[in-house]
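During the reporting period the student researcher (J.K.) took over the structure-prediction task from the postdoctoral fellow and processed the backlog of single-chain submissions. One of the processed entries is reproduced below for the supervisory committee.
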Amino acid sequence: MPDRPNILWIYGEDMYPDLSCYGTPVVHTPHLDTLASQGALYKNAFVTAPVCSSSRSGIITGMYQTSFGAHHHRSRRDWRLPDDVRLVTDCFRDAGYFTCNNPGPPNFGRPGKTDFNFLVDKPFDGVDWSEREPGQPFYAQINIPDTHRDFVNDPDRPVDPAEVELPPYYPDHPITRKDWAMWLETVQVLDRKIGHILKRLDDEGLADNTIVFFLSDHGRAHCRCKQFLYDGGIRIPLIIRWPGGIEPGIVVDDMVSAIDLAPTSLKLAGIEPFENMQGIDLFDDDSTRDHIISCRDRCDGTDDRIRCVRNHRYKYIRNYYPELPYMQFNSYKKLQYPVWTLIEHLGIKGELTPVQQHFTTSRRPPEELYDLETDPHEVHNLAQAVQNQEVLVDMRGRLDGWMTEYGDLAEETEDVEIAIHWDEDMARGYRERMAQRGLSPEIPHEDYLKWWEGQLGL
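J.K. obtained the following structure tokens:
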């Protein structure tokens, strides 16, 4: 069946919908804007985890990572999947598709990122669709790494730090503005790679028979975003171009979970999804979502367990370890996020606004509730307000019902040896990386910020 559609997933790493087609004013993303004009732009797409390995484990299986033990970030790389879990690539391969994965231009011939919390011998058949048999349809992933930190400058179209719009939970400081501007410039670099990929489809005569998905593995790599369950960490861009199947230029308001992409892609190819997949077909009018669930568990050596329910208007967050601060030490954040140290420094000096200062507190509330209609940045916790108790009870019930239906293996105590290993690994890695920078791991905040100013060219 040579006319079966090809399926292409293009991943941008660590991306929030900071694109001009989503309304971000200072970023220039003409190729993604064009893709959106040719297909459907989804306004409410979310991942099931705000960190790569856990989220990718859910997306590739079409299942909540918490339901089969892939929820702790990068801790079970040598663990085999149970028999009742299959990858979307297994389903495509069984149906005669060629499966492949690469990091995109200029490296179509190299393997792309997988980053799963389990071990599989052959997740993909190859690295590029050019390796397939004549007439064979393909399922391909292109995992573009650029938008993962470190950010890079875009010399072709610089973003003026003075023009970026900062969320209120970030201090308005030259370091913050420069870091945010570089993030947007990195998005522009990715956008040009999208243009190369789409041109290749056109040049090879594949565009009309290839359904293109653009997505991300989780939200942006900024403080209070990645590894947290606020929208900055779990909301992603999602654009689907289906020539002849989607009316060009539509905007979809439906709630979407990233685990829906596997069953949706299979159904588009005429393949029945694996029976245990927990996502839904986005093009089945009889199967829609009125809320999504997302989960955060241990990330590297930073222990945590957070769950959230989000619908169009409200976000409910349950903190299982409220005694732990938001800003637990995490080597990745301390090494890669200049604003992390800036918040610590300004917090000690008393130079943060109350909204910003809250993120530095030593404890968290056990529950958080936000009205996203009036508080899109999720800074006013309404969980204790009497007038919101009906909403709070409803959202609690939705989370409890999800746990009953799908299970949550984070309720099982993790092997203490695994946690100790990751604590030690994180501490060792931090010391080594700081030594490579010529810095002490105990460097004072002020001195570390001076180093960051040099790195950012301030």
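The committee noted the following: The first helix runs from residue 30 to 38.
J.K. will present the remaining backlog at the next meeting.
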